[in-house]
Amino acid sequence: MPASVITVSNRSPKFSRSSALKSISKRTTPMPILAALGTPLLSTAANLAWLVKEKQIAPHIPVFGKSQRTDGTWSREDFTWDGENDRYICPEGKELVQYHRTYATPRTGIDKDGCRRYRATKKDCSVCPSKPLCCPNAPARKIPRDLNEDSRDVARAIAKTPEYERSRHRRKKVEMLFAHLKRILHLGRLRLRGPSGARDEFLLAATAQNLRKLVKLRPSVTQESLPRAA
């Protein structure tokens, strides 16, 4: 599975999840695939937006997030995102929007964390029969949404495909080699300084690892296979 080295970028042109999925499905040439390790750094919205929007790379990367609730109340996945009208729809059919009034000066609604917050009205939540399952400790429900959440939605959609399972299986083979270097060959850190020293030390460790594998591939010598003396 080909992999790429990426750099972090915060640039993100206008984009939607549906347009990304359509562009991926209509490509006549194979789309490059980035199968990366399961680290939260690569699954950030900014990195996924850089991969999907600018580089047109299918991110076979697990998406980490804190939207999943564990107290039994509804998570963000239980709400339906309506991108055309810029709103969330709750399971009871009520809408969550950024503003419930019109301002003379239009507001972006972007906070310092780079998110937009969608809120339901207190009037709808106070009489809702599902309030104990939605926001039992708050007067109304609010949902934060990252500016590049559509790119994370693309990664989540790819994670449900058979291609993602195959790339995940292949990725484990590479991860096992690094785990063997760290735990068996005790390459937890490099002791030589500089790029040249790190390259030489890692090359020696990889050579030792390949020699161990080569010994296992040789047929075992038994007493019966030894040549008899004349």
What report would you give on this structure?
By secondary structure, the protein is an alpha+beta fold. 37% of the residues lie in helices and 10% in strands. The protein has seven helices and seven strands. The chain has helices spanning 17-25, 45-54, 122-126, 131-134, 149-158, 162-183, 194-217, and strands at 33-35, 58-60, 80-82, 87-89, 95-96, 115-119, 142-146. It has a three-stranded antiparallel sheet with strand order 3-4-5, with no helix packed on it. The chain has a two-stranded parallel sheet with strand order 1-2. A hairpin with a 5-residue loop joins β4 and β5 (95-96). α2 crosses α5 (149-158). The longest helix has 24 residues, at 194-217. It is elongated. 17% of the residues are buried.
Q: What tags apply to this protein structure?
A:
single chain, 230 residues, alpha+beta, three-stranded antiparallel sheet, two-stranded parallel sheet, 7 helices, 37% helix, elongated, disordered N terminus
